Amino acid sequence: MSEVGQALIRTLNDEDADIAEVCHIISKDPALTATLLRMANSAMFGLSGTVDSLERAVNVVGVSMVRSRAVSICIVNSAKLPVGLDRMTFWHYCLLCAGYAQWLAIQCGVNNQEAWLCGMMLRLGEINLGQASPQDLPRVEATPIQPGERWVREREIIGFDEGVVTAELLMHWDFPPTLVNGLRHTAQPLLPIEFQRLPALLNLAGRLADSGAITLASLKDLPLMLLNLLQLDPEQLLKTAPDAHSLADVSMFIS
What we know:
By secondary structure, this protein is mainly α. The chain is built from 17 helices and no strands.
């Protein structure tokens, strides 16, 4: 993780961190600033008109959104994918999962920027699993993969699912406990004694990202218990379903 990335993560734990501080940190990395502005002028930010400065982007969409994207860019730039994981396919999934997590969070009253960032980071643990057990990665990634099946394979073949490993990474990077716990229980959100909405919606987002574009069939295939606990109705969700392409335009994210 770059120094700028570490500094941005520290602001996640600082309630007093303001726009000026976040912009100052990001501006130390011209490449990061340029990528953020490119994203701000794409469909990813959902803005109309041209955004020509970091400060304007923050003022329009908020410091939380810009910071979450900045942290994710730092993560992408620092990640070294093992053999067996296609770079563009991998990050496309991550962006799609992030977008679906943000959308579901809005429906559930969960912090949508925290949900976006967790969705983006969910599969980081698979990078580590692939590095630690390269001989097992082809079995984990063997196609076809049904929604949610990767987590089951990881536990059966390696002993851990990617969410658990990502949670350990986040602890090492000093992310807020809410995000750590959300990712730790994503693959098995009903295991904790007390139900938590963040891991449950991340579970749904991950399954939808496995499916690709949202359809009524993919929504109805989601675990019914999680839908009921989050008070989500597939037919109502379909009415507000986001466009997969606008959520996961990797060309705007990876140069």
